[in-house]
Design a protein that fits this description.
Layout: E1 9-13, E2 28-33, E3 36-40, H1 46-53, E4 57-61
Antiparallel strand pairs: 1-3, 1-4, 2-3
């Protein structure tokens, strides 16, 4: 994610959700889980902001998980 912003969202590995209080309002939380957040933003440098706020690791992610693939023809429709 540091080299390219091709993914529509970022899967952020964190120790806790306190990272959310130090992020810009332009970075939006899509969903959360145990030690993971899915974040998105139109800002080109938002991945650097996530690391600066305390993210352990930032990986490419789809906004809505596998549901994003339904319209792309990757998931077989029944």
């Amino acid at each position: 994610m540091l080299l390219t912003n091709v993914a529509p969202a970022a899967l952020v590995i964190v120790s806790d959700t306190s990272i959310l209080t130090s992020l810009s309002r332009d970075i939006k939380l899509v969903r959360s889980g145990d030690h993971t957040l899915v974040m998105t933003s139109d800002q080109p440098d938002y991945v650097m902001q996530l690391y600066a706020a305390g993210a352990w690791l930032v990986l490419p992610s789809l906004r809505n998980g596998c549901l994003d693939l339904r319209g792309a023809g990757y998931v077989k429709k029944q």
